[in-house]
Amino acid sequence: MWVDLTESNPTRAGFAYPPDLLRAMADPRALSYEPYPFGMAAARAAVAADCLRRGATVDPAQVVLTASTSEAYAWLFKLLCDPDDRVLVPRPSYPLFEHLTRLEAVYAEPYELEYHGRWRIDFDSLARAAAAGARAILVVSPNNPTGSYVTRRELARLSDICQRSGLALIVDEVFADYPLDAPEDRVTDVALATEVLAFTLGGLSKTAGLPQLKLGWIVAGGPAARRDEALRSLELIADSYLSVSTPVQVAAGELLARGGAVREQIHARVRLNLEALRRAAAAFRACEVLTCEGGWYAVVRVPAHRTEDELVLELLERERILVHPGYFFDFPREAYVVVSMLLPPEAFADATGRMLRLASD
Ligand SMILES: Cc1ncc(COP(=O)(O)O)c(C=O)c1O
What we know:
It is a single chain. This protein is of the alpha/beta class. Helix content is 39%, strand content 17%. The protein has ten helices and 14 strands. The strands form three sheets. The protein has an eight-stranded mixed beta sheet with strand order 2-9-8-7-6-3-4-5, sandwiched between helices. The protein has a four-stranded antiparallel beta sheet with strand order 10-11-14-13. Strand 3 (86-91), helix 3 and strand 4 form a beta-alpha-beta unit. Helix 1 packs parallel to helix 8 and helix 9 crosses helix 10. It is globular. 48% of the residues are buried. Bound molecules: pyridoxal-5'-phosphate (PLP). Pyridoxal-5'-phosphate is lined by residues 8, 68-70, 94, 140, 144, 172, 174, 203, 205, 211, 216. Residues 8, 68-70, 94, 140, 144, 172, 174, 203, 205, 211, 216 line the site of pyridoxal-5'-phosphate (PLP).
């Protein structure tokens, strides 16, 4: 049997979704079409109300609905950039940035995250990247795959750079509801916590384990005048696509409320799997599970006497286990593997145990 330790689709990981979870999408109100560029008022209010779980008070007027986080990025690049402009992206991070930027005719310029017991932003590299000119700084918090949250101190420095260089801040918080070893001074709902033009991204895909419903959102924040000017321009972009389906908007309130049960299952499993992975790795001195502050992924440093490619292929051939090599996420050096922690605990413990043994061999 093959084991896929890259599985990041929660609908394939054996969680118990209530069978009638989608019933609100059949509401007869979804039979009529009344398009609004930023989404239906009730759905925007439901997203704003959901932010209260994290203590964030959002005005529904700040909420823009999108079909996905990927679409949110595309709209923000259209809003903030001209062709050939640059946006600053963390490294290591989410490999899709390369495509999401190029598809909008902009460039992703990396700044580094460095591991010193936790992953931190390397502000020297950020300053170097910003010096050549850019339109926005992208932050993923917690980051995929390093799991690092942005802290209050980091946010103050990011805001300062944005202020001085006229950059906007885009913070992808799709995993914000999955804290693990999270720092006390982490910040979520960043668009509400800074004095620069900022956008927080979220979506049902991760917060309720429902990627198939295609509902994401942007929360716009920062100085009121700049924020409202940005929202006016964003309205034309959103109105040109009107991409969020009516049934998902009609159901948004119920999906967000009942999706909490799915989130809790995912969170409990990820916690359990991370603990099991740590315990297992303790028996292999050559392997280290890096600090994981949040999200669904774990990073394991493994001996570099094989290349990451060799290790990944050997795991496939000898153990029938699929993992991501670190270079997939642009880790600064070899050798790392990245595993998703979504699999059922027994399968996860068995596969990661075999992976650690082979990697240490
Ligand atoms: C950091 C990050 N942002 C965004 C997404 C995609 O979210 P969506 O399904 O809303 O496009 C992912 C998916 O894995 C992700 O890891």
